[in-house]
Amino acid sequence: MEETHVHAVYEAIAPHFSNTRYKPWPLVEKFLLEQEKGSIGVDVGCGNGKYIRYNHVYLMGCDRSLNLVEIARKETSERKNNGDVFTSDGLNVPIRPVDFAISIAVIHHFHTPERRIEAIRHVLSKVKKGGKAMFYVWALEQKNARANFNVEKKQDVMVPYVVPTTKEVHERYYHLYKENELLLDAQEAGGTIVDHGYERDNWYVIVTH
Amino acid sequence: MKLLTTNFVQCAVKSCSSSSNCFPLHFTECELVHEDLEFDEDFIKNVMVKIDWPALLSVTRDIGNNSLPEEKPNIESCDEQVLRDLHLVLLETQIKDGKMICKNCDHLYHIKNTIPNFLLPPHLA
């Protein structure tokens, strides 16, 4: 499931996907700006590296898609950013613990509750005691037109991604989170909730441990 | 791959995570490139607090750089040139191509075009 409907899709759509994902989300930006100067962080599922742009921190971004990581490398290099990129699996990020972590629009691609909780637990294990991690997942309760793909309000769905230039359609797997579900998963993973809420069709949570 | 990153990455093989030999990795056949980045004194000072100095020395020696002192510099009392030298080593020096080997299990990781690959083959993942 994840191999065909997540990993392979991102490899295939990387260039176009990256062109549509350049603007940081405001609350992620706020979280990053709150980190102390010289803090070391990890971005698990960094995609095109759009959050590696704040030079008061050193953010290491990792992603399973080499095509996306190559784009992240090029763009962060052109922006003269602190930080770095590498390829790794989200359930196996090979670093010693750092000061903070983000994982934005990633956890919803794991296809069982156990794997989603394990993914949160793994990210938390890469943050020092007392450090914070922020997670964003797509919400079931979507208020805009994109929700049209899911009129039946199913939680486990395939979301078509159409590449405009070629009209190719790629189906991406998502688990759409219900209200409070992310909080429960984060607590199950051993986290203590610091803040949470809803922004732009997504649930987010800031967790410490 | 910036040298600062080498101070955090370790072997991805699960059975190595409990071994003290999985960090730092051994670097070999490395080709380096320089990339200018803005110097920020406070940033470097705060980063230095988090640096594992013996691990950094191990990696710099692996890549043939013997410029760093045996003891970690005292960042509160050192002059600006020391901090600029650390900025050069940690942030501006990149490994473009090379190999990383785990000192515990001998697994080999590649760095290609400045990107380290920590994805494991199926039998180890």
CATH topology of chain B: the name is: N-terminal domain of TfIIb
Beta-strand share of residues of chain A = 25-35%
> What gap, in angstroms, lies between the N and C termini of chain B?
23 Å
Beta-strand portion of chain B reads 15-25%
Q: What integer value in Å does the Rg of chain B equal?
A: 15 Å
How would you classify the helix and strand content of chain A by structural class?
A: alpha/beta
* End-to-end gap of chain A: 31 Å
CATH class of chain B: Mainly Beta
CATH architectural group of chain B = Single Sheet
Mean pLDDT across the residues of chain A is 93
SSE pattern of chain B = HEHHHEEE
Q: Kindly state the number of beta strands of chain A.
A: 9
Topology:
The complex is a heterodimer of chains A (209) and B (125).
Chain A: H1 2-20, H2 26-33, E1 39-44, E2 57-63, H3 66-78, E3 84-87, E4 98-104, H4 113-125, E5 127-138, E6 156-162, E7 169-175, H5 181-188, E8 192-199, E9 202-208
Parallel strand pairs in A: 1-2, 1-4, 2-3, 4-5
Antiparallel strand pairs in A: 5-9, 6-7, 8-9
Chain B: H1 3-6, E1 26-34, H2 41-50, H3 53-62, H4 80-92, E2 93-101, E3 108-112, E4 115-116
Antiparallel strand pairs in B: 1-2, 2-3, 3-4
Please explain how this structure is put together.
The complex is a heterodimer of chains A (209) and B (125). The two termini of chain A are 31 Å apart. In chain A, helix 1 runs parallel beside helix 3 (66-78). A 7-stranded mixed sheet of chain A has the order 3-2-1-4-5-9-8, sandwiched between helices. Chain A has a two-stranded antiparallel sheet with strand order 6-7. In chain A, helix 3 (66-78) links the parallel strand 2 and strand 3. Chain A has helices at residues 2-20, 26-33, 66-78, 113-125, 181-188, and strands at residues 39-44, 57-63, 84-87, 98-104, 127-138, 156-162, 169-175, 192-199, 202-208. With 209 residues, chain A is of the alpha/beta class. With 125 residues, chain B is α+β, with helices and mostly antiparallel strands. Chain B has a single domain, classed as Single Sheet (N-terminal domain of TfIIb). Chain B has helices spanning 3-6, 41-50, 53-62, 80-92; strands at residues 26-34, 93-101, 108-112, 115-116. Chain B has a 4-stranded antiparallel sheet. Chain B is globular and about 50 Å long. Chain A binds chain B through residues 36-40, 55-56, 58, 60, 62, 64, 66, 69-70, 73, 77, 80, 82, 84-89, 92-96, 98-99, and chain B through 1-2, 4-5, 8-12, 14, 23, 35-38, 40, 42-47, 49-50, 91, 113-120, 125. Chain A: This is tRNA (Carboxymethyluridine(34)-5-O)-methyltransferase. Chain A: It holds the Pfam family Methyltransf_23. Chain A: One of its GO terms (molecular function) is tRNA binding.
